[in-house]
């Protein structure tokens, strides 16, 4: 009986890790193999921090000027986005999120997108495991329909991680009325391989439809990553 609570806590820790694991980190982990994948996931667990760009992601609807279907209101200016971030963001996170949000704003607003709210979709990869993506709008530009994922981090995904992230979004969203949609990343990080002192290089990165990974192959790798995370999260803590 004495072991029961401990097992429960370890199980809760593992489940918490799975729920907190960002889709961008999932794409990075899937892009790695063997020891590199294991090492990346262990480092994620050992160094996980609450410092994040969640406020920028949460402000994405304002940054893009997202509209509800059948409604149209003027997109709010940068001053409104800035005011919102200052009112809702922890002071320790404010400067980094203001910088990322401004880069994202300056990247996407000149494109002239029409951004429309849609239902958030997930990718189900196992009986009880769900990949949360957090994309609740799409954009159109002329005849193009696009699911464009905002990437506010300093470090950009590699080309292989981008393909995996795009494949996850494709299999979750590009279906039914959205079957003709493209998948893109609105990336405001540094170019892959850049030095840590290099500035951000905001750009739109298309995921070519012909390169999208099959759902079967993608699922196998995602389940392996989640399996490793679960195993690491349930190992006894070392004193």
Produce a short descriptive summary.
By secondary structure, the chain is α+β, with helices and mostly antiparallel strands. The protein is built from 9 helices and 7 strands, in the order αααααααβββββαββα.
Instruction: Tell me the radius of gyration.
Output: 19 Å
Q: Give the oligomer, counting copies of the same chain as homo and different chains as hetero.
A: single chain
The rounded distance between the terminal residues' Cα atoms is: 23 Å
Could you give the count of β-strands? 7
The sequence of SSEs as H and E is HHHHHHHEEEEEHEEH
The main sheet comes to: 5 strands, mixed
Sheet with most strands: strand arrangement: 1-4-5-6-7
Arithmetic mean pLDDT: 89
Structural class based on helices, strands and sheet pairing: alpha+beta
**DSSP summary: helix tally:** 9
Provide the low-confidence segments as ranges. Answer: 1-11
Net shape: globular
How would you describe this protein?
The protein has 239 residues and is α+β, with helices and mostly antiparallel strands. The chain has a domain at 52-213. 48% of the residues lie in helices and 14% in strands.
